[in-house]
Amino acid sequence: MLNEVYSEQKEGASRAIDALRREFGTLRSGKVSISILDNIQVDYYGTMTPLNQVATILAVDAITISIAPWEKSMLKPIESAISGANIGVNPNNDGESVKLYFPPMTVEQRQESAKKAKAMGEKAKVAIRNIRKDANDKVKKFEKDKEITEDESKKAQDEVQKITDSFVDKIDGLVKEKESELLKV
Q1: Beta pairing, strands 98-101 & 55-61
Q2: Are 163 and 17 in contact (CB under 8 A)?
Q3: What is the DSSP letter of 70?
Q4: What fold is seen in the domain 34-101?
Q5: Cα 185 to Cα 79: distance, rounded to the nearest angstrom
Q6: What's the first-to-final CA gap in the chain, in angstroms?
Q7: pLDDT digit of tens for each residue in the chain (185 aa)?
Q8: What is the rounded CA–CA span in Å between residue 114 and residue 121?
Q9: pLDDT score at 131
Q10: Do domains 2-26+106-183 and 34-101 have the same CATH topology?
Q11: Among the CATH numbers 1.10.3720.10, 1.10.132.20, 2.60.40.10, 1.10.8.60, which is that of 2-26+106-183?
Q12: Angle between helices 150-183 and 2-25 (to 10 degrees)
């Protein structure tokens, strides 16, 4: 029963770390990544649809992303969705596709991205701590219901804390890694 609590805590914490990695993908680093467009929705015949479901998206080189819609009529909606998303570049429509040209990042932009990475890491740590609280609440309930002794409860809470610490360390490592990637010119 305690092992169940530990495995649930590890699963939840792993999901929080996966979410952090996905969030990191939306940050701009030295070379462009198509994941910067992950959160953009396009009006597809009245339905808001993710951009990658109406077009082929390619990173042509380190500073260019090409978006080729599957239907020509989608060029304008894609262009306006990107403009509205405020990702730091203006879309260029050449009649066939929409191209995004990202200028090289300035030192200030890199530092700003590093700050965002740190904030994302803090958000993930809060999620991990909430998972810890849920796990500790379950352990305390077991103790209250006399399913485990007070000593077992203390040991279980120590184990929950160890699991939390290991995941917080992982987050710190990921944030440090991402910051060095972002600040490297």
Answers
A1: unpaired
A2: no
A3: S
A4: Gyrase A; domain 2 (3.30.1360)
A5: 30
A6: 50
A7: 889 999 999 999 999 999 999 888 778 777 777 888 888 999 988 899 999 899 999 988 888 999 999 998 899 999 989 888 877 788 998 889 999 988 888 888 888 889 999 999 999 999 999 999 999 999 999 999 999 999 999 999 999 999 999 999 999 999 999 998 888 76
A8: 11
A9: 96
A10: no
A11: 1.10.132.20
A12: 10
Q: Are 13 and 163 in contact (CB under 8 A)?
A: yes
Dist. CA 10–CA 6, nearest whole Å:
6
Task: Specify whether the CB–CB gap between 9 and 138 falls below 8 A.
Answer: no
Domain range annotation of the chain: 2-26+106-183, 34-101
* Secondary structure letter of residue 90 according to DSSP: -
